[in-house]
Amino acid sequence: MIKRKIIAVLLLIASVANAQDLKKEDVKKEVIRLLDSINKAKLPDTKSGVSGEEHWYDRISLRGYAQIRYNGLFSTNDKVSCDQCDKSWGTTSTDPQAKANNGLFIRRARLVFSGQVHPNVFFYFQPDFASSPSTGIQNFVQIRDLYFDLSFDKKKEYRLRVGQSKIPYGFENMQSSSQRLTLDRADGINSSIANERDLGMFFYWAPAEIRKRFEMLVKDGYKGSGDFGVFALGVYNGQIANKIDGNRDLNVVARVTYPFVIGDQIIEPGIQAYTGKWAFTGEISSGVTVNDPQYIKDQRVGATFVLYPKPFGIQTEYNIGTGPRYNTVTKTVDVTDLNGGYVLLNYKWDLKKQLLYPFAKFQYYDGGKKYEKDARSYVVRDYEFGVEWQPLKAFELTAEYVIADRSFVDSALPVNRQQGNLLRLQAQFNF
C-alpha cells in the first residue's frame, strides 16, 4: 500500500513536467495529501530499525541502577557489622582475628523490565546481578521481583498482583533502595521480611488520582514509597524470596496508607500488620533447641507517619510483635516480644538542576532475626548523619556517618556488644 502511494506521488510529479493542461496547484495539493498519508502510515525507519507495525517488545521498557560502596573510612571498631544490611560493613566472621570486609563493594546492580503487555495485564521483572550469600561469593544473578498485575477496571484502580514482590509492610520496606536516603533500612522494620520480598498474591486498591500522587512523590524527588495501593491485602509463603516454603501455612498481611494534601504539604499516615508461622530450614546450630521449628509464631503490627520534604521532612515508623529469638542462658530459641522503629529527619534543597538532601536518623530494635543464625538476638541503637547529592539524574553520591551500638548474639557469640563509628560512601548510577 505504501509503495503504491510512493509510485503515485512520483507519477504526479512527472505529470507536472509533461502535462501542460494539468493545473500545477491541484498537483501540489494532491502530492501534499499523499505525503501526509504516508507519514501517518509510519514508514520503516532504516536507521533505528523501528517499523510501523507494533510488536510485543514495543510495550516493554528497560531501566536500572547500580550502587558501589566503600565502608573503610575512619572506622573505630571493625567488629561492628550488620549482616542483613551490607556484607561489606565490618566483619561477620566469628573468628576474633578476622579482618574487616571494608573494600569497594557492589551493593546492587539491577535491571528492571516492565510493561503493560495487555490493557489489563502489567508485568515487572527485576533481577539483581550483585547478590551476596553468606558463602562470601559475590555478584551472582538472583530474582528480586517477578510479578504480574491483573487489573479489573479501565482506570486500574483494582489490581491483583501475583508472583514474587515486596510484602506490603512498612513505608521504608516499600521504598526503593534507589530512592532511600540512608544506605540501609532500619532493623526494627526490615527484620520482619528479609529483602522485603516473598512469593504471594496481593490485592491493591487506590483511586486513579492517588496513584498519580504516589507516582509524583517519587518522580519529583520527594522520596516516596511508590504505588502499593491505599489498601493492600494478601497472602504469601512467609519464607523469604527465592526460598522454598518450609510449611503449609500462608502468612496474611494488610496495609492502609493515604497521602493527604494539606496546604503546600503532603503527609502520609499508615498502619500495617501481618500474621503467620515461621519455619526454620537450616538456620539452627547443633545443640540449640527449638520447640516445633516448623510452626513458630510470627506476628507484627506497625504504624507509619511521613511528612514529605517540602522542603523539611519527617519519616518515622514503629512496630511491635512476637517472633523467634535466641536465648543465651538456656541455649534455646524462644518466642518473645519484639519492638523497634526509627525517626528520620530530612531536607530537600533545590540548587537549580541539582538536589541536596541532608538527613539524620535514629533507629532502635530489641528482638530476634528469624532468618539469621539461631534467630540471632539483637539490641540496636544507631545514629546516622549524612547527605545525598544529586548533581544530575544519572548520578548520586551519599556520605553517611554512623555512630553504632549493636548487640547481636547467637550460639557462637553468646556475648557480643559492639560499639563504633565509621564513614560510609556510596555512588549510585541510574540508567
From TrEMBL:
The keyword Ion transport does not apply. Gene3D superfamilies: Porin. It holds the Pfam family Porin_O_P. InterPro entries: Porin_dom_sf (IPR023614), Porin_O/P (IPR010870). Residues 1-19 form the signal peptide. Transmembrane segments: none annotated. Keywords: Signal. It comes from the Bacteria. This is Porin. It comes from Flavobacterium cupreum. The lineage of its organism: Bacteria, Pseudomonadati, Bacteroidota, Flavobacteriia, Flavobacteriales.
